Amino acid sequence: MAAPLGRDTLPEHWSYGVLRDGRVFFINDETRITSWLHPRSGEPVNSGQMIRSDLPRGWEEGFTDEGASYFIK
C-alpha cells in the first residue's frame, strides 16, 4: 500500500491534489511536473472516495485502508 497522504510524507517541494473523481496526483512545485505515482513509494494513491458514473445519483464509493470498497450516500 502506498504511503498515506499528507504533507509530512512527501519530499520537499512536492504537493498533491485530488480530482473530483477521487484520483490523487502529485506536483513537483519546482519543476511543475505532475505524476499519478507517489514520489516516495512510486505507487498510485487512492483518496479513499471515488465518484463512479455507474452508481445511482448521490452515491460514492469509498475504500478502507485494507482496500475493501463500501458505498456512501
TrEMBL record:
Domain of life per record: Eukaryota
CDD domains: WW
Gene3D superfamilies xref list: 2.20.70.10
Domain WW stretches: 8-41, 53-73
Protein's name according to its UniProt entry: Pleckstrin y domain-containing A member 7
Organism: Ameca splendens
